[in-house]
Design brief:
With about 280 residues, the chain is an alpha/beta fold. Helices cover about 40% and strands about 10% of the residues.
């Protein structure tokens, strides 16, 4: 499985969080590329020729999995012709395979909207998941680039120490949020809410993946009169108009959270990402 690379390990990350994690673990031994940004819906991505070219030259592909990239990743893999990174090959890693997935449905049909049979794919919004995935990713990078295995192991150990200290700090800072009822635009932050003990009491989407409708939002306005949420959460790639509409009519504050690394000025890396999320939640009225 181990090979000798004459250049840096080329990592194709489907989402920015995995590119950031690869950089943390590999330093100058890796060249990470993120196929998407925090301002894009990762469900809806065009399989552009430029992405196919990047995939063709990749040594390792890291994606969220759980069918998040179902609409575009298979085409990239097929068109790239890169045997090293096909599913089942050492150069292919799905992050969601290394954590306990939430919201796994017992059955799926089209009336349910964009429900993922493998569970919620947005695993990166819980820092405890990041720690587990980091360990798996470092091992895979070391196996693919045996000459630098010691470097990956050292950087992984250092990252794990810093990450666990930061996670404890974030958890302490966010302790007052436990039990807080919130509305979400999309089930993007389910792992975050689970980690912090917050409660989702409704979604702006009538069904997962379907845009908020006037009728559904009007129903939420009435529901909030009986059982109000404290915050309305939406991500950096969501259209803010639905959250604004609901906030104006209910008086519930809306809070934009970065979807991933790059989703705000502060979220320049994974540490900044969670620093910013915890700060934004804590600063909300």
């Amino acid at each position: 499985m181990g090979i000798i690379l004459l250049t840096a390990l080329s990592v194709f990350a489907c989402e920015p969080e995995w590119a950031s994690l690869a950089q943390e673990l590999g330093g100058d031994k890796v060249t990470p590329f993120a196929a998407t940004t925090a301002m894009q819906d990762p469900h809806q991505v065009e399989a552009r020729p430029s992405l196919i070219a990047r995939m063709r030259n990749a040594d390792l592909v890291v994606c969220s999995g759980a069918e998040l990239e179902l609409g575009w990743l298979p085409l990239l893999l097929t068109q790239s012709g890169n045997d090293r990174v096909q599913p089942g090959a050492p150069g292919y890693l799905e992050a969601s395979q290394y954590v306990v997935r939430l919201e796994v449905p017992r059955a799926v049909d089209r009336s349910m909207g964009d429900v993922h049979p493998g569970g919620n794919p947005h695993v990166h919004t819980d820092p405890r998941n990041i720690a587990r995935i980091a360990a798996a990713l470092a091992q895979r990078m070391a196996a693919l680039d045996a000459a630098n295995a010691a470097t990956y192991a050292e950087r992984a150990a250092a990252f794990d120490k810093r990450w666990r200290e930061a996670t404890a700090r974030w958890q302490q800072q966010a302790a007052p949020l436990k039990g807080l009822p919130v509305l979400v635009h999309h089930k993007y932050y389910s792992y975050l809410l689970n980690w912090l003990g917050m409660r989702e009491v409704g979604s702006l989407e009538p069904r997962p993946g379907l845009p908020p409708s006037t009728a559904h939002l009007a129903g939420l306005v009435e529901h909030m009169k009986q059982s109000p949420a404290k915050l309305i959460l939406y991500s950096s790639y969501n259209d803010a108009r639905a959250a604004e509409f609901l906030s104006q009519r209910t008086g519930i504050p809306k809070v934009m959270l970065p979807a991933t690394v790059g989703g705000s000025e502060r979220a320049k890396d994974l540490f900044g990402y969670f620093d910013d999320i915890v700060a934004r939640l804590g600063a909300a009225p």
